[in-house]
Design goal:
Blueprint: E1 9-13, E2 16-24, E3 29-34, E4 55-60, H1 79-93, E5 99-104, H2 106-115, E6 124-130, H3 135-147, H4 152-160, H5 162-167, H6 175-178, H7 185-193, H8 206-226, E7 237-242, E8 263-268, H9 274-277, H10 279-295, E9 304-306
Parallel strand pairs: 3-4, 3-5, 5-6, 6-7, 7-8, 8-9
Antiparallel strand pairs: 1-2, 2-4
Helix pairs in contact: 1-2, 3-8
Length: 307
């Protein structure tokens, strides 16, 4: 079900061209998939077959990845720019109806930026988020916890995110990738994420995507955690929390109900790359969320279900 090698259409946001791919049921509701670092649209190859009959599925290479444009300036990767990319894709593929969005890692971070924009609920019908927090929410939570002298949660997330400090150092941060980490990426994920390496099929652009994608870390993490903004949304949100995620700890979502009017939580016994290891479960939970919204079900007050 991979679309590697398929010819994309291109959607523009200013000078950036975004490679967009379409699969699934042309008559179905539109579901937009947004990948993270250092992936491309092909991250979703283990998810798409499980709901391709139900949805019209749109995936795209985010800026700096795959066949999309890769601006050189760090400022080009600031969250408002990335959110505008998503809205450009939505406007191009579904100008007359809101879409559902499923996003992972940095794709989830930038989708959080989009759903917290005024009027986002008119363009996004639902948002399922995996392993990518709203950085403003995370910053607010860390400040509250520290003010209450309850540092355990922030310290746990800081330890899990220690690698991001390295990623923000020019030259030094890119060194592991320039030295060839991309050559052993499936093996690295085997040990880091307990993934079956045969499931990992790196894109041919992985070496460049790893380096370019680090500009997201440099452009956003320190500014957002240092001066977090109040960011709220009326877009219904589902959090898929990966219990074994070594990079994004579930505790960091403790306060999310403060900022989201309709929030559901679900868990998977997975590591960070659950779209690869648990593709069927990700598809099932996403579909169930859309069905619940159609049926008019109410939020489950933070109750957690598991696959």
């Amino acid at each position: 079900m991979s679309v590697l090698g398929a010819e994309p259409r291109f959607v523009t946001n200013g000078d950036v061209r975004l490679a967009v791919y379409e699969q699934g049921n042309p008559a179905g509701e539109t579901l937009v998939l947004v990948h993270g670092w250092p992936d491309t649209h092909d991250l979703w190859q283990h998810v798409i077959p499980h709901f391709a009959d139900r949805f019209r599925i749109v995936s795209y290479d985010t800026r700096g990845a795959g066949a999309s444009s890769a601006p050189t300036a760090v400022a080009a990767y600031e969250l408002p720019q990335l959110a505008r990319d998503l809205f450009a894709v939505i406007d191009a593929v579904s100008p007359d109806a809101p879409v559902h969005v499923l996003a992972h890692d940095w794709g989830a971070v930038e989708t959080w930026e989009a759903v917290c924009e005024p009027g986002a609920e008119q363009r996004i019908a639902s948002y399922t988020s995996i392993s990518g927090p709203n950085l403003d929410h995370l910053g607010m939570w860390m400040r509250r916890r520290l003010a209450q002298r309850r540092p355990a949660g922030p310290l746990a997330q800081a330890a899990a995110s220690g690698y991001t400090v390295l990623f923000q150092i020019p030259v030094v941060g890119t060194l592991p990738f320039r030295l060839g980490l991309w050559r052993i990426w499936p093996t690295f994920l085997k040990y880091f994420d307990r993934l079956d390496p045969t499931l990992v099929r790196p894109a041919p652009t992985l070496a460049a995507d790893m380096v370019t994608g680090l500009k997201r870390y440099r452009a956003n993490i320190r500014p957002r955690l240092r001066t977090p903004r109040e960011r709220r949304t009326d877009v219904p949100v589902q959090l898929i929390l990966n219990r074994r995620d070594l990079a994004v700890r579930p505790v960091g979502y403790e306060d999310t109900e403060r900022w989201v009017s309709d929030l559901r939580r679900r868990e998977l016994p997975a590591g960070h790359w659950s779209p690869i290891s648990h593709g069927a479960d990700v598809a099932r939970l996403t579909t169930a969320f859309v069905d619940d919204l159609r049926a008019g079900s109410t939020p489950d007050s933070g109750a957690v279900g598991s696959a």
